[in-house]
Amino acid sequence: MENKKTLDNLVTNIYSKLDNLNNNKSLGITKKQADEFGKAMSAALLGWSKPYKKDPKNSLRMSSIGKPDRKLWYEANSKEAGSVGVTPTTHIKFLYGHLLEEVVLMLVRLAGYEVTDQQKEVTVEGVKGHMDCKINGEVIDVKSASSFSFKKFRDGTLVEDDVFGYLGQLSGYEAAEKTNKGGFLVIDKSTGALTLHRPDELDKVDAPKRIQNLKAIIKKKKPPERCYAPIPNGSYGNMQLPRQCFWCPFKHECHADANDGKGLRVFKYARSNTYLTKVVREPRVDEVFK
Questions:
Q1: CA-CA-CA-CA torsion for 142, 144, 145, 151, nearest 10 degrees?
Q2: Which of 75, 151, 158, 284 sees the fewest Cβ atoms within 10 Å?
Q3: Which among 245, 284, 236, 240 has a CA at the least distance from the CA of 258?
Q4: Torsion sign, CA atoms 198, 201, 204, 209
């Protein structure tokens, strides 16, 4: 018996549809559907290939309102904000993130669900954003994630480690659309597994109030307190940046006072670089200099 087309049954219904292939049944994709999917992939590719243009009048974006205050202050005020580039490998990650989003939405439609409002522009307190879509009338943000990050959505623990501010982003879109039962449809990039995480209302933020507070924060002359405190590195008294700071483009500027004013010291380990804020005993690996 087929499940009802509710959001709670979304992933189950997608999997059930794909099981037809194991039963020697066609998925029934029409030429029109295939052509529409091809156009969506083409649009994603073309959109990715163009540089993102920031609004010089407003550094805040809906996708960023859930990020820590200090990071947003630097985005608005740092002299390095416009010069921080993205690595070629990260650009590739962005590309297949865009393409996987279209694959996921194709599967949603194939399972019989209604997808609307793709990339609809919304505004809350003067801050603009483009929502991924609505599924059956609820705001859904489509994400591609590593297996490690996927667990946060699958297990419902995103609120405990929302490094990229996804909950704030969803809250903003829902505030604009006056809905409150949306969530995140996430695909594991390694396994192809899907999960739908619909956070509790208490885990979301008051988007209009959050934006008002942020507008006041980024106008201040000095940044707010640090987002995350350094953590011990080994047992000799060395201190390092936590993983939440690793990808931040402003970590050197933010920690310019580290190591008695010399700034962060970077050491190259086998798996990745480590950023030390205090060096008591020098690591036995190469140091990386700017």
A1: 40
A2: 284
A3: 240
A4: positive
Contact 70, 225 (CB under 8 A): yes
Residue 52 has what pLDDT? 75
Residue 79's pLDDT band (cuts 50, 70, 90): confident
CA-based nearest residue to 122, from 49, 171, 194: 171
Rounded CA separation 136/287 (Å): 53
pLDDT at residue 137 greater than cutoff 90: yes
For residue 186, give every residue at least 6 positions away whose Cβ sits within 8 Å of its Cβ, in sequence order, or none: 142, 143, 144, 145, 150, 153, 154, 194, 195, 196, 197
Q: How far is Cα 1 from Cα 50, in angstroms, rounded to an integer?
A: 46
pTM of this structure: 0.91
Nearest-CA neighbor of 248 among 221, 284, 223, 285? 223
Strand extents, DSSP E, the chain: 115-116, 121-124, 127-130, 133-135, 138-145, 183-188, 194-197, 231-233, 238-240, 265-268, 273-278, 287-288
Distances (CA, A) of 207 to 76, 124, 174, 198: 19, 8, 9, 17
Helix axes 88-110, 31-48, angle to 10 degrees: 160
- Virtual torsion, Cα 180, 182, 183, 186, nearest 10 deg: -170
Kindly give the interhelix angle for 207-217 and 166-177, rounded to the nearest 10 degrees: 120
The pLDDT mean for the chain works out to: 93
